[in-house]
Structures are given as structure tokens and as C-alpha cells.
Amino acid sequence: MSKSQTRLFTALFRNSFLALFLTAGLFSAVRAEESFYYLRPGASALVPEATAPVAVARAASSAGYLTAAQEAITDFPPPPAAGSAGDKADLAAVLQWQKDRTPEQCSAAMAQSDQSFVSFFGDVSPFKKPLPAAVGAFFKRVSGDSGNANRYIKKIYRRDRPFLRSSELDPCLGRAQGFSYPSGHATDSRLFGLILSDLLPRQGAIFMRNADQAALNRVIGGVHHPSDVEAGKRLADRLYKEMLANPAFVADMQGLTQYFR
Q1: What's the CATH number for 36-259?
Q2: Domain ranges of the chain
Q3: pLDDT digit string, tens, across residues 173-196
Q4: Can you tell me the mean pLDDT for 18-47?
Q5: φ and ψ at 112, to 5 degrees?
Q6: Which residues, in sequence order, are bridge partners of residue 38?
Q7: Which H or E run includes 77?
């Protein structure tokens, strides 16, 4: 085969493969960002952490509520310096939870490992059941924005998970991969709680209590430090303020009321 024939064959193969890739709907799900995986207790293979399906969902919806510039946060406060008193207290808190936690607390934390609206608020949800598709799509879109911002900050500080810093730790949520600061679960649960609280102020305390528990479960489960979840909450407050300045977000959020029970 001549060189020209080889180049032609290579080009045809590449184009045919790309066409097949697009037809299967996979191209939109591919993102140039870090994928996180973890090993569930008792599992024999790595499975995607919640950030992966969120990224796919966001790509499928074509756009989030925040711009790339809003998600690329460069001035977020750092975690406690390695070896500092705050850092040592952070790790000590995770170790203490490991001593004190119950099997029921670990089970509750595991039930929220998928980082979804239903796992965080299913027991207090004001929406019809099963969750209407439009409501689920809204919260996935919000989660897509928060996930992008969260991963951006994680890559700046690259803080290790607590179980990588102490051989005494045995996380009951499995050994989550990816960086620790800030907590994506804490960001999403608080964001969702803030949205629900604005829609139904009288039930705000209930929603925020659920959000705080979802965040704490990540510490109980041994995959985050307390400062990671507090940072996740601060990030949620910041992102929510940005989202409220977007008319499309406000309109979509207000539109959720039609799906109340």
C-alpha cells in the first residue's frame, strides 16, 4: 500500500469512527476534566463517583446557568495548611467520627453517595412522586455548574482525602478518588437546600437540616475533612448568589412550584 493510500485509509477510518461516536450520543458526554472513581465496600471494580453522571447530564442539557468564567474561581480560600493546628484538628475529627459512628450512620451516608436531589431530600421533598423529569433536570443542571466550580478549586489545592493521610482511617463509604477540598456533596446539598428554602420559606429549617446532614455524612463516612464540607457550603452560597443574578435560573426555579404536591 502506498503512503497516499495509507493516509486516505487512516482519514476514512478516523472520520467513520467519529461519525459513529457522535451518533451514539457519546461525544457530548466527554469532558476535558478529571473523572473520579471509587471502590464501594464489597465491590470488585471501580465505579464512577457522582460527578461523572452529573457531567453527562449537564452536557446533555447543553448549558448550565453559570458561565465558564463564573465557574473558574481563583480566589477561593485555601484549606488549612498541611501540618498546621487546624489541619491536625481536621484529621482528628475524622478519626473521632470513625470511633463514634454507628452502622446505621454509615448506611445513611452510603444512601447519599450518588449525590442526587432524591438522595438528599427524598424524605422531605415537596414535589410529586416520582420526581417529575423537569424537576430532576433542573437540579442536575444546577449540579453541573457546581461540579465544574468544585473540580476547578479541587485542582488548585489538590488536598488528599483523609484516609490517604492516616493509615488509621478505614472509610465506610469506600476509598473515594479525586481531591478532598471542597466537598461536592456539601456544595450540592446546600445549593439544593437554599433553592427549596427560597421556594418554601416555612420549611427552610427542615431543608437546611437535611443539607447539613448530607454534608456531615461525608465526614462520618471518612472521605472528607470537616473543613472540606464547610468549604463546600461556602462555595454553594457563592454560586447561589451568582445563579440568582441569572434571569433564566430564576424563571426555572420559580417554575418548579407547578410540580409541588
Answers
A1: 1.20.144.10
A2: 1-30, 36-259
A3: 999 989 999 999 999 999 999 999
A4: 35
A5: -105, 15
A6: 47
A7: none
